[in-house]
Amino acid sequence: MAMLSFSSRPVASSFLLRPNRRPHRLLLPTKPLATASASALTPPVPRDGPIATGSPDADATPLFLRPATHPVPASALAAFRRRAAALVPPSAPHLHRHLRWLLADASTTSSDSDPALLRAPLDHIEALWLGHVRARRPFQYVVGNEHWRDMVVAVREGVLIPRPETEAVVDMVKGVEGFGGGWWADLGTGSGAIAVAVARELGDGGRVFATDVSDVAVEVARLNVERYGVQDKVEIRQGSWFEPLQDVKGKLMGVISNPPYIPTEDLPGLQPEVGWHEPKLALDGGRDGLEHLLHLCEGLSSALKSGGFFVF
Ligand SMILES: C[S@@+](CC[C@H](N)C(=O)[O-])C[C@H]1O[C@@H](n2cnc3c(N)ncnc32)[C@H](O)[C@@H]1O
């Protein structure tokens, strides 16, 4: 993670002079979600392989936001809990934790009621669980959200799960003099997590232009913007990098971006949760991983106002 300030110096120079230096990244693939034992439990299966469970939800609303309209006898729920736990060895405590969280998201708070009221049919919840433990579908896609900073960010297949590493970006930009009234761009906004968090800190006149080329990202970012009520501060625009920002050229106090940076040849080696399930569009940084970052550097000089910042 880095923040650079640019005045009259050509903005791309600090990168282009050191083309072989891999920049310190905002985001790395998630720390392994699967322990060695969980890996043993679920040997890698090619993404296009036989696993049928855990396919994307038809309902993209995060589980905890769905109405609890599915009554189920407490005994059936208890039986599911036992079946689900039996799939996971004690040596994979994170999966046992995920089971508790899944049930917490899926049920109303009065969990000892009989019948219990669930936010999805029990067989659907079971399929979600199988998708997680067998198909290595990330837990965040299973429940449709990720806890990030003080927010609960909606996510789904097709949009990158925001990582803890990016949380610090918001504190970084908050420290910039005049931050609150500035215009910022979050390029490749994904779920919109950064844009929303920045917008919540802005004062009068402050604005975030959040761009992404992906349809799903744009849709999910809009949902998160609405959920946090920052429509007046965040403008989502669809398109490639600076393309949708022609009208604010030279007016931005800062550009924030966490572009895809994994070298194409490294993609097959990613842990299954990332490589099989997260969008290639959000991961693939081209031959050396720097393709998008260098493109962004080239556009900065015309996008930023003098003294503007690039946070990446
Ligand atoms: C590593 S993800 C970062 C997502 C989000 N900013 C975050 O930190 O969670 C990179 C994002 O860049 C987007 N992206 C890829 N190519 C793009 C392009 N040509 N123009 C705009 N966005 C692009 C992807 O769709 C993805 O959302």
TrEMBL record:
Q: Sorted alphabetically, which keywords does the UniProt record give?
A: Methyltransferase, S-adenosyl-L-methionine, Transferase
* Residues covered by the Methyltransferase small domain: 184-261
Database matches in InterPro entries: DNA_methylase_N6_adenine_CS, HemK-like, RF_glutamine_MTase_cyano, SAM-dependent_MTases_sf, Small_mtfrase_dom
Annotated GO biological processes are: methylation
GO molecular function terms attached to this record: nucleic acid binding; protein methyltransferase activity; S-adenosylmethionine-dependent methyltransferase activity
Instruction: Spell out the protein name for this chain.
Output: Methyltransferase small domain-containing protein
**Which gene underlies this protein?**
ga11863
